């Protein structure tokens, strides 16, 4: 048991170090994105009078940031460097997924701060239960998007894989209007769902987080298999 515990500690240490390496690579870009997000958010909030929109804008920025380690690794041929670190492919995948999860949490917190600032500017009565649900929904959607994108990057690399990563955005672009039309046809059903969400925001939020993390972990398992079997 002691040896297994020691081996597990070593593996986790390597995985976390790899996640930190990803963070180190994107750190300069992260600062730029933070400044850009704050620069964009204030005019958007003032113009649209919609505080909650920033959650989804921040989600979009976070999803883009997740692709940067793949792009930089491919551009600078860093994958050869990973081999010198005696890192197993499984550890590389786990490390990048930890980095991804941390990135999505960071941008969710950032969107929360921006929405609070927007609420101060607009002086609107902020419903914190609604704010919680919006934040969780944005976090859930971001997990779904990256869960679909990461396996493509691990299997094909950034240049080839990014073509397939556009698919989730097209699905959202087509799905939102379709959902709107379905809502028009089944108004009563959607009203009942909306009423349940409104009356149980915490429970629904927990459910979304758990579902998002489950899908994220399934994506991790798929990425490990794809990356381990990937031909050089």
Can you walk me through this structure?
With 232 residues, the chain is an all-alpha fold. The protein has eight helices and no strands. It is globular.
Short précis:
This protein has 232 residues and is mainly alpha-helical.
Query: Beta-sheet strand percentage?
Result: under 5%
Shape: globular
What is the count of β-strands?
0
Largest sheet: none
- Count of separate DSSP helical elements: 8
Query: Radius of gyration, Cα only, in angstroms?
Result: 20 Å
Identify low-pLDDT runs. none
Based on helices, strands and strand pairing, what is the structural class? mainly alpha
Whole-number mean pLDDT? 81
Give the % helix.
Answer: over 70%
Task: Provide the descriptors you would attach to this structure in a database record.
232 residues, mainly alpha, 8 helices, globular
Q: Which helices and strands, and how do they pair?
A:
Layout: H1 2-48, H2 53-75, H3 79-84, H4 89-122, H5 128-165, H6 167-185, H7 187-199, H8 201-228
